[in-house]
Amino acid sequence: MQRNLKRLAAETYDLLIVGGGINGLAAAWDATLRGLKVALVEKSDFGGQTSSATLKIVHGGLRYLQHLDFVRMRESIRERSTLLRIAPHLVSPLPFLVPTYGHLLTGKEAMSAAMLINDLVSYDRNRGLPDSARQLPPARYLSKREALELAPGIAECGLTGGVIFHDGQMYNSERLTLAFALAAAERGADLANYTAAVRLLRQDRRVIGARVRDLETGAEFDVRAAVTANMTGPWSDLLIGLLERPDPPRRVVRSQGIQLVAPLLYPRVAVAVPSVYKDPDAILARGNRNFFITPWRGVSLIGTTDTVYEGDPDDFRITDRDLHAFIDEINQSLPGAQLRREQVPFAFGGLRPITEKNIDTGSKVARKYEIYDHAADLGVAGLFTVIGVKYTTCRLLAEKVVALAFRKLGRPAPAAVTAHTPLAGGRIARWDAFEREVVAAAPAGVSPKTMCHLAHSYGTAYGVMLDLVKAQPAAAARLPGSDEVIAAEVLHAVRAEAALHLTDVALRRTDLGSQGHPGRAALAACADLMARELGWTVAQCAAELAAAEQRFQFVA
CB under 8 Å to 191, separation ≥6 — which residues? Predict the structure, then answer.
């Protein structure tokens, strides 16, 4: 997968997708599998904005039970199973502990009933999952002693025990997002990162594509398509503004969500902790909403916040004040944590849709995806906007988007096949056997831990790294400070995964910086490898290092 801007300028497409987050990439994959000629442009890197802000949980929709929204529950349960099936290298089961208190809606009786309903609603959660390593067991109930053994430090006053249920967890959310891009490109989609739409092209009352700018060179060209899908997430209203003027007003209101990387608090389970925020729409409110403390590869991920963000989404940054505020909330809700700012090496976050009716009273995130056909509301044909709200249901949303594209093209839509088509690297029958096979294939100088990491990150494509090592033995070297990431991954990211900048590799193609600053030596080694591949000058290399350093810092 590489940018081919000459091809984008020369071709006429059935579908142009503006926005290369998880929803746009999933739609590109679905559309190519159903025979459409697809182009996609993204102004930053693939999955570099909201999609990278996930807590890495694949939710089965248990929270929808509070709203008695069984339709959304069923959707989420099906899509959780789908991701476990089509990307078994990147998604696996994770147990969650919900402590119970007293005998009302937060008590064991109410939660036991909720778990029973959840198990009934998700009766088919393991259908199509023959691999037991990817199956989700039913809920089980814990005594107070068992709950405290799993999660010491949770509030003990009124504690009666807890319940355990299972959801999915991503090994690497950025690699999962990229797997959709790679799968789409493999089937013929033309994808370009760092390519921004600057104007929507119109012919009378119809949009016929977009004028785009290559942010690497400043060059502009037209991408023409019969149908254009606006899938830019927090930037969606700004893109619509390009219908009328090249620089639309930039006051938008969104919800800001932040996740923290912290020391490993609970290694065996994710723990739901009530926060001080209350959900005003919950029909069966247990009280405050939960945030989650999840074990992830030797650290805890804690999230998510939900606060109003006003302003240009391009200006979104996590501040030190944001971190202190969230740490204070965690310590209020979980006194045993006693988390300190210096224990938080990294945080990541993004913007999400917010329901306009609640702007003045809070930042209630939208729960339902929306598709707006602008032939109906703006009188402009050939354009529609898609607002996705949940990573888990990206494939289902893409299915609906592509069905609409076919209707707009006046063509019958073939049946979607993405629910049973493995993503890039995902054709794995039994995970345990596959992992053993990968470890056994280790060449000299590559550790079993690195081989396990390659199995998770690349799935069946792990052999490409070994081919690089065979051709260039120095590519087997681990980057400084990392016990997993090898030089071959950096080379592969540049040569085959459209990585153009140091942050693309450090944060999205590899795990080098996923838990915080990997160290100056690691960034320098990565930059040196990229400089040789991309021909960076000394000044360009220094600029890339400075930009990466800034990404790991938080403004006051």
Answer: 1, 3, 20, 25, 28, 39, 40, 41, 42, 46, 181, 184, 185, 498
Joined together, the tokens standing for residue 431 give 């995970």
Q: What is the DSSP string of 366-413?
A: --S-EEEEHHHHTS-BTEEEEE---GGGHHHHHHHHHHHHHHHHT-PP
Residues, the chain: 556
Q: What angle is formed at CA 458 by the lines to CA 456 and CA 460, rounded to 5 degrees? A: 100
Helix axes 394-409, 70-86, angle to 10 degrees: 100
Structure confidence at residue 405 as a pLDDT band (50, 70, 90)? very high
Q: Tell me the torsion sign for CA atoms 99, 101, 104, 106.
A: negative
Residue-level pLDDT at 286: 44
What is the rounded CA–CA span in Å between residue 514 and residue 336?
Answer: 26
Comparing CA positions, the residue from 22, 29, 85 lying closest to residue 56 is 22
Domain regions of the chain by residue span = 5-51+174-249+368-420, 56-170+253-358, 431-551
Q: Are strands 91-101 and 38-41 parallel, antiparallel or unpaired?
A: unpaired
Candidates 1.10.3470, 1.20.1530, 1.10.8, 3.40.50; correct CATH number of 431-551? 1.10.8
CATH of domain 5-51+174-249+368-420: 3.50.50.60
Do the two domains 56-170+253-358 and 431-551 of this chain adopt the same fold?
Answer: no
What is the structure's pLDDT at 390? 86
Q: How far is CA 459 from the centre of its chain?
A: 18
| E-strand stretches of 237-369 | 253-262, 270-278, 288-296, 299-303, 307-310, 346-352
CATH: 3.40.50.1000, 2.30.40.10, 3.30.9.10, 1.10.10.10. Which one for 56-170+253-358? Answer: 3.30.9.10
CA–CA distance, 490 with 474 (Å, rounded to integer): 12
The CA distances from residue 154 to 263, 279, 281, 327, 421, in Å, are 16, 22, 26, 16, 42
Which whole-number Å values give the CA distances from 554 to 55, 64, 90, in the listed order? 19, 34, 29
Helices (H) then strands (E): counts for the chain: 17, 18
CA-closest candidate to residue 488, choices 513, 514, 458: 458
CA distance 256 to 238: 18
Give, to the nearest 10 degrees, the angle between helix 22-33 and helix 394-409.
50
Q: Where are the alpha helices (DSSP H) in 221-276?
A: 236-241
What average pLDDT does the segment 18-42 reach?
97
Q: Band the pLDDT of 275: cuts 50, 70, 90.
A: confident
In 3D space, the residue among 315, 266, 263, 245 whose CA is nearest the CA of residue 516 turns out to be 263
Q: What is the pLDDT of residue 300?
A: 95
Residue 366 in this model has a pLDDT that exceeds 60: no
Phi and psi based region of residue 61 (left: phi greater than 0; alpha: psi -120 to 50; beta: remaining): left
